[in-house]
Amino acid sequence: MTMDQILKEIERCQDTWKSLEGDCLSLKANTRASEQDLVKFQEEYELLGQKLIEAENEAQAQEASFQKKLQLEKKDSKQLMQEKLALENELKHLEQLHATQEQIRKVPAALPDREMVFKGHVEEGKMESLPEMLSFLPQIRYPVLGGSALITFEDPEVARRIIQIGQHCIQLDEWSYMDVKAEAMTLLLPSFLKQISLKQSSHQVLLSGLSAFSLPKDQLHDKLILFFSKRKNQGGEVDHLEQLPNSDNVVLTFVDDGVAQRIVEKGPFLVLLGKETHQVKASHCLHGEIADLQLHPSICPRTVLLTEIPDVIEREMMCEALEIHFQKESKGGGEVEAAVYVPAGHYAVAVFEEED
Question: Where does the NID domain start and stop, copy by copy (predicted)?
Fold first, then answer.
């Protein structure tokens, strides 16, 4: 090897050494940065742990406060039994309510035709300890979601057994089975109603007797607005018309005050719409407010809610399979009075009424 080659080799080794020395310095710098990040992460970890401990302590304190409030509520519920001192105020309230009802009865209104049934009861007792009572029979509408069913048994004991078992395996055919969950059917029922206040609207009238017309609703509404906008019919400018839900009646709202009173005082109208002439009744529109309505949970004694039902067969076949299963005494069942199944993707409204 010549001298020039040796010098070049020495120069190449020096360059390599300098490069390695730079890499070493870079690694040391990265190591220091990593150590700093580690210290930072450890501090954040300790801070998060401290916050978690504080959150747990706060949750325990809130739970203790809730338990204390619960105990106070229980004491208050016992004190509510002492109602004798509140009877005088209740009597005054009843007198005011009676006076309000008398004023409402004096309103010259022709009420819309609608069948109504009152079912009540009379309790015997001393008049000084038993205020006047209005008993009403609630009709509860409960939404039934898809993938569920309602089963009503003749015997409440059967329903209790089905709920106690919980999970049920239903046979669909010779090879197919499915699991469903049985739950108690719990409804919220009114237990106390303190006051119903009614206020007569000066801009609105209630129109009834419209079911006799065969026109489509859109056309009927337009012609009603036109009819009651005319001065010769005691009308005025109509602001808007509202179709009442689950009813053929509508509410007309007028721009000017006093138009509603004129229409009601005139009485029933013979309205010519197209080739049809029918009587339309106009009455005052009353707005009501319910004060202090208290509800309490109530379990249906004979009806069971079934959930988690897969959509695997047609509705009629599924309903039949459920009814067959829950009729078997070996499965804890008994005589089924009614069975309703709602497939997944659909919904229904179940109407519950108090049994006689």
Answer: 149-239, 250-338
Contact 149, 340 (CB under 8 A): yes
Residue 149 is predicted with a pLDDT of: 93
3-state DSSP assignment of residue 318: helix
C-alpha separations of 80 from 67, 85, 104 in Å: 20, 11, 33
Strands (E), the chain: 139-145, 148-153, 167-171, 177-208, 238-243, 250-254, 269-273, 276-307, 336-342, 347-353
- Residue 196 burial (CB < 10 Å; 0-12/13-18/19+)? middle
Cα separation of 331 and 334, whole Å?
9
Burial of 342 (0-12, 13-18, 19+ CB in 10 A): buried
pLDDT tens digits for range 33-49: 888 888 888 888 989 98
Residue bearing tokens 């109208």: 269
Q: Which residues contact 225 (CB under 8 A, 6 or more apart)?
A: 238, 241, 252
Distance, CA of 227 to CA of 243 (rounded, Å)? 17
| Percent composition of the chain: helix, strand, coil (DSSP 3-state, to 5) | 40, 30, 25
pLDDT digits (tens, 9 = 90+) for 311-326: 888 999 999 999 999 9
Domain ranges of the chain: 1-105, 139-192+294-353, 197-291
Superfamily of segment(s) 197-291: RRM (RNA recognition motif) domain (3.30.70.330)
The pLDDT tens digits of the residues spanning 215-229 come to 888 888 888 898 889
CB 294 within 8 A of CB 275: no
Cα–Cα dist 148/185, whole Å: 12
The set of residues, in sequence order, having a beta carbon less than 8 Å from that of 144 and lying 6+ positions away, is 150, 340, 342, 347, 348, 349, 350
Minimal CA–CA distance to 309: which of 317, 300, 299?
Answer: 317
341 near 144, Cβ under 8 Å?
no
Tokens of 8: 């070049």
